[in-house]
Amino acid sequence: MRKSGFPHPSKDILQTRGAKLKEKRLVLCITGSVAAVKCPEIARQLMRCGAEVFAVLSPMAQKIIHPYLMEWATGNPVVTELTGGIEHVTLAGAQKEKADLILVAPATANTISKIALGVDDTTVTSVASTAFGSGTPIVIVPAMHESMYQHPVLEENIRKLKTLGVTFVGPRIEEGKAKIAGTEEIVEAVVSKFYACGDLAGTKILVTAGPTLEYLDPIRVITNKSSGLMGIEVAREALWRGAEVTVIFGPGTASPPEGARIIRVETTAEMYEAVISELKSRKYDAIVATAAAADWTPVKQYDYKVPTRKAPSLDVKLKATPKIIDVARRTSPQAFLVPFKAEYNVSDSELVERAFKRLKDSNADLIVANDIARKDVGFNVETNEVFIVDKKRRVIHISLRTKREVAKNLIDLIAAKVKAR
Ligand SMILES: Cc1cc2nc3c(=O)[nH]c(=O)nc-3n(C[C@H](O)[C@H](O)[C@H](O)COP(=O)(O)O)c2cc1C
């Protein structure tokens, strides 16, 4: 183990992905699952967000990955046994200097059940027991074969831990396994534990995201190429900052963030109804309507698969679908309303002009416009360039950058307005 007093070179990545976890000390407890191979990556992503990470390995974990690997990954000494240094108390005890969060990843069936029963017979279970007593938040990321995961006693123990305030992340059920959640999902879950008191704490935000589709017959649809990523990033950023977030999500391919309520819909009519029902059931502070809802629906929908051999052409008459923004404004006049508007191949000034007109017509508070004909902008890409226009026709241009960064800029504006109300 490292003894020199010089800084560990592995720490050169600290804060290279932002400072959301700056000054946070995280204990990464690793148990005897093959998914332990993911731990260096998990530790280093947490470090890139600014966290100091301290690894604790159960005896079985040490047969799967070597402690040197985690010492290299974190740049900190690794706990492999409990000694006269009472490492479990030093890390997670009730004293002033202690960890901010305990992350058990991967968590075996064995360790989860032992934590639920208050058994502490390994480095990891002793840290967890101590954390319960000191009120340190615990996040558990299970990984095991699906047959182990479906053990009724384990299920009961997970329910018990959830009622005790433990956050569970994943697993992903794939190939007969309850696989460890993705690294990004784990990092997000950790970050959102700290941002529950962020600048949007206590607010409720409704996001619509993704495309919708309109059926011509039971198998043919009219839709667009939206992945829903822009709305998902808005939801993710709002969650990170402590908002309670509901996403009404059409059939997009983007992965919704852990912690948001997701309402799945297919058609524009379903999205329209879901928006009304949500806005009637709870008081939202802001509505961010990023969804690329299909604007047209066939007047006639066939209830059989329309054959092509007998009639090689088919006349389809379309009618406009109802405007979700308008009903959102009528149902929730007090909410801060932010629609998105996509245009195709227009100049900047035309884009802003059309956006401002839509903002006035729908009595919105801000509008976000983009031109999806531009390179790397709009549907099914990870980047966006937008113009944000307010009621006084003031324009903020956000040049091409990741949708995550665009979402952050937008949530900065929304948070300032919502908090000022
Ligand atoms: C190669 C290998 C992989 C294992 N993977 C898992 C796993 O993914 N999940 C699990 O619950 N147990 C797994 N086990 C079984 C656990 O290691 C075993 O239950 C052990 O007692 C767990 O101890 P710990 O929870 O203290 O780390 C695995 C065992 C081996 C040898």
Highlighted features:
421 residues; binds flavin mononucleotide; alpha/beta; eight-stranded mixed sheet; Rossmann fold; 20 strands
Q: What is the strand and helix layout of this fold?
A:
Layout (H helix, E strand, L loop, with lengths): L24 E6 L8 H10 L3 E6 L3 H4 L2 H8 L12 H6 L8 E7 L1 H9 L5 H12 L3 E5 L1 E2 H4 L2 H12 L3 E2 L3 E3 L2 E3 L3 H13 L8 E6 L4 E2 L5 E2 L6 H12 L3 E6 L11 E4 L3 H14 L4 E4 L6 E3 L19 E3 L3 H8 L4 E8 L4 H14 L4 E6 L11 E8 L4 E8 H18 L1
Parallel strand pairs: 1-2, 1-3, 3-4, 4-6, 9-12, 9-14, 12-13, 14-17, 17-18
Antiparallel strand pairs: 5-8, 7-8, 10-11, 15-16, 18-19, 19-20
Helix pairs in contact: 1-3, 1-9, 5-8, 10-14, 11-12
Bound molecules: flavin mononucleotide.
Structural write-up:
This protein is 34% helix and 22% strand. With 421 residues, the chain is α/β, with parallel strands linked by helices. Strands 13-12-9-14-17-18-19-20 form an eight-stranded mixed beta sheet, with helices on both faces. Strands 2-1-3-4-6 form a five-stranded parallel beta sheet, sandwiched between helices. A hairpin with a 4-residue loop joins strand 19 and strand 20 (395-402). Helix 1 runs parallel beside helix 3 and helix 1 crosses helix 9 (183-195). The radius of gyration is 25 Å and the shape is globular. The mean pLDDT is 93.
